[in-house]
Amino acid sequence: MKEKDVDKLLKETLFIEDLPSDELNNKVKFLINQNKKEKELSIWWMPACASILISFMLSFFTFVFLSSSLIKLLALLFIIIIILANIILTFVGVKYFDLKKGAVI
Questions:
Q1: How far apart are CA 14 and CA 22, in angstroms?
Q2: What is the span of the domain harbouring residue 67?
Q3: How far apart are CA 7 and CA 3, in angstroms?
Q4: How many domains does the chain contain in total?
Q5: SS3 assignment, position 17
Q6: How far apart are the first and last CA of the chain?
Q7: Which residues of 63-76 are buried (b: 16+ CB within 10 A; e: fewer)?
Q8: 0.90 cut: is pTM over it?
Q9: Which keywords appear in this protein's UniProt record, sorted alphabetically (predicted)?
Q10: Which of 8, 37, 62, 81 is the most buried (most CB within 10 A)?
Q11: Element (H, E) at 26
Q12: Is 41 helix (H, G, I), strand (E, B) or coil?
């Protein structure tokens, strides 16, 4: 076959005569977006929960391994402040920076 014949065959195969309607395209786009939203898993709460879990483990080890009650009290107070700061930062991120929309899988 000549090169022109191959080009002609390619053009004929790639040419679409009947295009789908705009209504059908819109329905397909809507269904695709709906499926994406159904499959998304929001993980906006995960940083705060991980930080709280780590802080609780740190407070447990502080309570078990430190002998001085004053040092225990100061360390636990510091850990509680860290936990509260993490919770506040998470809610600030959710409210002002769209953390729920950005933190999805």
A1: 21
A2: 46-102
A3: 6
A4: 2
A5: coil
A6: 51
A7: eeeeeeeeebeebb
A8: no
A9: Membrane, Transmembrane, Transmembrane helix
A10: 62
A11: helix 22-39
A12: coil
